[in-house]
Amino acid sequence: MNDIEAQFEAGQFGAVITLLEGEARTAREHALLGLSLLYTGRLEEAELSLTRASLLGDPEGQVELGNALRLLGRFDEAVTHLQAIAPDLTGELQLRCLRWWGVAEFQAGQTQEGLKRVERAWHGYIALGNEELTGRVTVSLAQMYNMLGDARRAKLLLSEAVRVLPSLPDPAPRLTALKALLELQIAHSEFVKARKTLVDAKQTLTQVDSPRLRMLLMTSEAELLRVSGNYSGYLSLLEDLRLHAEGLQDHNLRVWTISRLAEHQSLIGQHSQALYTLLGFERKPAEWPAELWATSGVLARRRADLLGASVDLRKAAQMFRDAGRIRELVRVQLHLAAAALQLKEEATVATVLKEALTHMLRLRQLNEFRPDLEELNELLHYAVLEPEIAPYMEPLLDNLANLAGAPRLPEDGAIALQVTTLGRAAVQKDGEEVKFTYAGTVPILVYIALKPGRTRAEMQLELFPEKDAKSGAAYMRQCLKELRDKLGPQIVRFEGPHQAPWYALGQDVHVDLDLQHFRDALSGGEVARALALYRGPFLPDLEESEWAQQVRDEALLALTFELRNQMARYEAEGDHQRVVLLANQYLRIDPHEHEVLELRLKAAEAFAPPHELAKYTADLRRMFN
């Protein structure tokens, strides 16, 4: 027995399992077997061994049974069990019991009670004078503070935990601390530090044989890939995690993987597959955690089930709000506001979005929400034009200036391309930008989408008139070849005479063109959506093309005409605040239009404070100096 204890203390959990599996008889043997199974991620088997150890009276087995129940997602059972055994414990085990009891309460939504209990455990460990044990509970405390939005305190605690926790004999606590620190650095856009922490964590991981810890670190690595825009790497890691998460029986890992994978599948248009992934969670929806209700709502909004999305997102928001999980709440509120906007529930949009923006300004962690803000860009531009919400938007505008317009996704099975033409030329496929060698490749794709049925010579004349017939034909062939090489041979089809075929998109190709959405928005009087999509001139690098210049002029004229119409309407209605907001947007596009500068100043005189009037007056005077 002493040899088994020594192997356990040395972190040789696999060896302990080999010796005791099927052979454990005493309370201590069942406890050692259960703990080793727990640390290697075999949670359901660990529960059985720890239950035997607990019933046979092993105090450590009793405490770690509560931890196992927590890891299996049975938070209420864990709380009840740990509360029952706490009075009979002393010393370090009593403190450990407080730790897992508090963490289980926190995960069950009793955040303040859980936080206070873990703080009590932390103080107790400090009094014991054992730095390593103190470092372990410090990690739990830091994770709680981070989820409650106190990132500064969380980072301070984690840095201390990483300093004191050893890599051997048990590297798991140090790895947990590094993972939590990595997530904080990602949330604050500290990517250089995050990559360094990831390398440190992977080196620590080599010293332990734990599939569960490896998978947990992969979740953080996947998040780093997501927020930095590497969607192919992100999807690859998600699919790898899905293959392993089922076998590990870790509740939190399964929830994270299912919610993230389902959301990404829906983002790239795989709506049926996303639902299949979400409903693969083993519990009925009535027992879902908030994360899955949030995912269900986002999926519903993306497939245009706006009423269903509103119900699910409201439920998730309330659960996150009750639990004090501010970062998750913000993300749900953004999607809830977007659904309400499409339902034309303006009062709901204002209420929900103001709360979300208030939290965002306090957290100062915009990068964490960047993928959502890019997708919901129309919502943000709507907010800029609403007097009730606009003051919350002003501090964020500089950070949001480069966000793209929101894509609209095709039905399942189509080849989806999101093509940006306003402000820059770019093509995204499955959420990731495709890089091209030739500057003319994207303009050719755009031209074919807008004007199908033209020959190669006709396209060259309108797109690249500066090239002679021979060099132009060669360049067209190179660009068309690159389109097929990068996007698939079916991307473009051609028919007609062999010497002069005409070109069109392939039948299964869906091009989501920002210019078309821009035109649709203006035709429907949706100026906020048009502003969200207009990021600059059409195909700005296509300098010699009269066709491109004509499209540019038409787009700019249509936008400024609609802005002028709406300013005139609101001026007639006496809504001076909206006139100023619209004028501000107009002047972002054309800052030298003196008529709009005069109109803005006149409208502002009805309500604006002196410092704002002074600014508008100065802007107008500069036009005449």
From TrEMBL:
Name this polypeptide is given: Bacterial transcriptional activator domain-containing protein
Bacterial transcriptional activator domain span: 513-597
InterPro entries: AfsR-DnrI-RedD_regulator (IPR051677), BTAD (IPR005158), TPR-like_helical_dom_sf (IPR011990), WH-like_DNA-bd_sf (IPR036388)
Chain coiled-coil ranges: none
Classification via SUPFAM superfamilies: TPR-like
Record-linked PANTHER family: TRANSCRIPTIONAL REGULATOR REDD-RELATED
